[in-house]
Amino acid sequence: MGRLASALYSIAVAVWVGGMLAIGFIAAPVLFAQLADRTMAGNLAGEMFTITAWMGFACGAYLALYVLFAKGWRAIQSGVFWIVLLMLVLTAAGHFGVQPVLAQLKADALPRQVMESALHDRFAAWHGVSSGLYLLQCLLGVALVILQDRGRRR
Fold first, then answer.
1. Interatomic CA distance for residues 63 and 81, integer angstroms
2. CA nearest 49: which of 82, 33, 26?
3. d(CA 110, CA 92)
4. How far is it, in rounded angstroms, from Cα 40 to Cα 23?
5. Structural domains of the chain, count
6. Cβ-count burial of 24 within 10 angstroms (0-12 exposed, 13-18 middle, 19+ buried)?
7. What region does 86 belong to: left with phi over 0, alpha with psi -120 to 50, or beta?
8. Residue 95 and residue 153: Cα distance in Å, rounded?
9. What is the pLDDT along the chain (154 residues), one digit of tens a residue?
10. Would you call 14 helix, strand, or coil by DSSP?
11. Domain limits at 145?
């Protein structure tokens, strides 16, 4: 494949995985450490995770298509292809599955904050599911960084 396509492949890996790690392990913890209003910290972190998910959809789609075009049907034998696909599935599960549940729990708790309501335990459990999915996605992202050159080879 062309140099531009190959460069965009590397950029997509860097943006997706770097973004996930920066938001999940730097920005969100800093928000909760520095802001006295935990609700505000949570809302800001949630917005950053939403942007990260949409970036992930774009980068993941490009990476999957790149590997498919580079390898043809042999892509299904590529570990990189399956890592990207699994990361996309986890992104979709978190963004379209778990996040709406968390948003509904927040809405159901009104006028109280969800962490001060009877829904605290359910919210904490679903937040744990979300965190677990995100951690797994980050670990797969690290594997993608390590193995990314295999996605380029024919």
1. 8
2. 26
3. 27
4. 16
5. 1
6. buried
7. alpha
8. 32
9. 689 999 999 999 999 999 999 999 999 999 999 999 998 999 999 999 999 999 999 999 999 999 999 988 888 999 999 999 999 999 999 999 999 999 999 999 888 888 888 999 999 999 999 999 999 999 999 999 999 887 666 6
10. helix
11. 3-151
Kindly report whether the peptide bond that precedes residue 111 is cis, defined as omega within 30 degrees of 0.
Answer: yes
The alpha-helical segments, DSSP class H, found in the chain are: 3-22, 28-34, 38-71, 79-92, 99-109, 120-147
- Within 10 angstroms of residue 84's Cβ, the number of other Cβ atoms is 29
Tokens of 19: 């973004």
Tokens of 6: 């190959």
- The tokens describing 8, both together, are 């965009």
How far out from the chain centre does Cα 84 lie? 11
What amino acid occupies position 117? Answer: S
Question: How far apart (Å, rounded) are the C-alpha atoms in residues 54 and 79?
Answer: 23
The pTM assigned to this predicted structure is: 0.91
